[in-house]
Amino acid sequence: MSELYGGIEAGGTKFVCAVGTGPDDIRAEVRFPTEEPEQTMAQAVAFFAEQRRKEGGLTAVGISAFGPIDPNPESPTFGYITTTPKAGWANTDLAGTIGRALGVPVGFDTDVNGAALGEWRWGAAQGLRNFVYFTVGTGIGGGGMVNGRLMHGLIHPEMGHMRLPRNPEQDPFAGSCPYHGDCFEGLAAGPAIGKRWGQPAETLPPDHPAWDLEAHYLAMALHNVITVLSPERIIMGGGVMGQAHIFPLLRQKVQQSLNGYVQAAAILHNIDDFIVPPGLGSLAGVLGSIALAQQAVG
Ligand code: ADP
Ligand code: ZN
After folding, report:
1. By CB count within 10 A, which of 55, 131, 133, 237 is most buried?
2. Predicted TM-score (pTM) above 0.90
């Protein structure tokens, strides 16, 4: 019997579950909307139970979850989604419920750390010991590795909630974060773009001024992350980054903002290879979860 791992990308809008061992070996995948916790977790368990019957085994499951979460294995609430504003999901024992139902070890981390691990194993962060993975979608999250280890700490980084300078004359939109107003997520996540300009972000044409402003805020955040963490690469994923034309603009604005101060060839000369889209595309999350499962037993 060969090893088989399960991965869950537990998002605030949808769950993606898959079984396999890596990018060239995804045996099955299913996606369903994130509804009530009991029902949603039962759907995931049912999928893995069926795959186990078909494949003859299931070694471990990995979960990359929307948060905030408790990723500390020493904590009594390890594996929980903790203070999320998402209705019904606060204080949900996600990893424990799934692990007990299936009787397998569970790897558990934030959605962005999961995706970062996937990118490190098989994607755009191979061979790196310090890098950052951002998602810019319904919310903004950032994770990654420092000195070869996924970033944890007091809890886990909340890079989407860093504060950025906003010039109210250039951008009167006060920001949409329920906790901070004009933090990074409040200014630059998909819903903030939609509210600022009065139409969904994906309907704004490439020459709309929204994108120059978006690239500006992204560049401010990347300036901060580069100066704080000194990453060797920054991977930018999530729905909003589907606007491929943001990348050249963002790279240029990061160079302008740093103003030659960080003397690294990666920034001064090879920035196309420094700020990049995910190597695994939209599969980073679920593949990263499979990598978390492998890490949980390896
Ligand atoms: P989630 O964050 O829920 O996992 P996504 O990463 O797809 O999902 O992010 C959804 C957000 O991204 C929405 O606010 C949507 O308006 C925005 N979005 C999705 N696709 C695009 C696109 N091609 N261009 C700009 N914005 C997009
Ligand atoms: Zn915030």
Report:
1. 133
2. yes
pLDDT digits (tens, 9 = 90+) for 90-145: 999 999 999 999 999 999 999 999 999 999 999 999 999 999 999 999 999 999 99
Q: Are 219 and 266 in contact (CB under 8 A)?
A: no
Q: Mapping DSSP to helix (H, G, I), strand (E, B) and coil, where does residue 223 land?
A: helix
Q: Per-residue confidence at 298, pLDDT binned at 50, 70, 90? A: confident
Contact 27, 4 (CB under 8 A): yes
DSSP string, 88-102: T-TTEEHHHHHHHHH
Ligand 1 pocket mutation pick from 202, 204, 289 by most atoms within 8 angstroms of CB: 202
CA distance 138 to 160: 11
Q: Where do the domains of the chain lie, and which CATH numbers do they carry?
A: 5-110+282-296 (3.30.420.40), 124-277 (3.30.420.40)
**CB atoms closer than 10 angstroms to residue 5:** 26
* Ligand 2 midpoint to CA 193 (Å): 15
CA gap 132, 125 in Å, rounded: 9
For the chain, counts of helices (H) and of strands (E): 9, 12
Per-residue tokens: 283:
């599969």
Which amino acid would we find at residue 284? A
- 139 C-alpha to center of ligand 2: Å? 9
Alpha helices in the chain (DSSP H): 37-55, 94-102, 111-122, 184-188, 190-197, 209-229, 246-258, 265-268, 284-297
Going from the Cα of 182 to the center of ligand 2, the distance in angstroms, rounded, reads 7
Mean pLDDT, residues 69-89 taken together:
94
* Structural contact between residues 284 and 123, judged by C-beta atoms closer than 8 angstroms: yes
- What is the distance in A from the centroid of ligand 1 to the CA of 14? 12
